[in-house]
């Protein structure tokens, strides 16, 4: 089992620090949730690995949630099942225990991606569904112009699409997931048309990449973006995004079904 932070976090980010106000900014986005629900198909029993506070867990299935961070487990609403304290690399379930399994915004946290994916495949009879970001596409957003160091950290942390596909095996589909303008799940690209909102410290804190760069990077980001918004420079360059219904960014849904690779 991998080393954990003091709150039980097993990944590279300490959610005992960054997870305290997480649910204020990270709510499940219905448009994105539809992609996940469709990919789960008719599965009645679902394992959610790295479940966090419960975003994207379907409420019409029997869900078993796994989350190593105590600070995230306590933020799960009462309507959701209590999460099991375990890590992806060592799932405490027997083979083929679940109809389907899912993991959202978590694989980049796992110390051993290959082992974690193999464990998901081991305990799952049907589809394994992974919501993540393609590191090769992260520079598409204007954030790269203001905080290239943060984007570089993200790109380094997120596993490539090929690594995930190889780790899962079987028949794998990679679906691009457009991000809606008023996305309520506040990952960085969700603010593509609402730059003022990412100036809030809590919004950045709910995105773990900011915790991996020096505070001076965040300070410079806030100063430069605040200035460019006041001067109209941001709007001159990117103002069309304020009314653009969707942004085709780095968000991807990987769906792996058992069988031979096509």
Automatic annotation (TrEMBL):
<feature type="domain" description="Methyltransferase type 11">
    <location>
        <begin position="47"/>
        <end position="125"/>
    </location>
</feature>
<dbReference type="GO" id="GO:0008757">
    <property type="term" value="F:S-adenosylmethionine-dependent methyltransferase activity"/>
</dbReference>
<dbReference type="InterPro" id="IPR029063">
    <property type="entry name" value="SAM-dependent_MTases_sf"/>
</dbReference>
<protein>
    <submittedName>
        <fullName>Class I SAM-dependent methyltransferase</fullName>
    </submittedName>
</protein>
<keyword id="KW-0489">Methyltransferase</keyword>
<keyword id="KW-0808">Transferase</keyword>
<dbReference type="InterPro" id="IPR013216">
    <property type="entry name" value="Methyltransf_11"/>
</dbReference>
<dbReference type="GO" id="GO:0032259">
    <property type="term" value="P:methylation"/>
</dbReference>
<dbReference type="Pfam" id="PF08241">
    <property type="entry name" value="Methyltransf_11"/>
</dbReference>
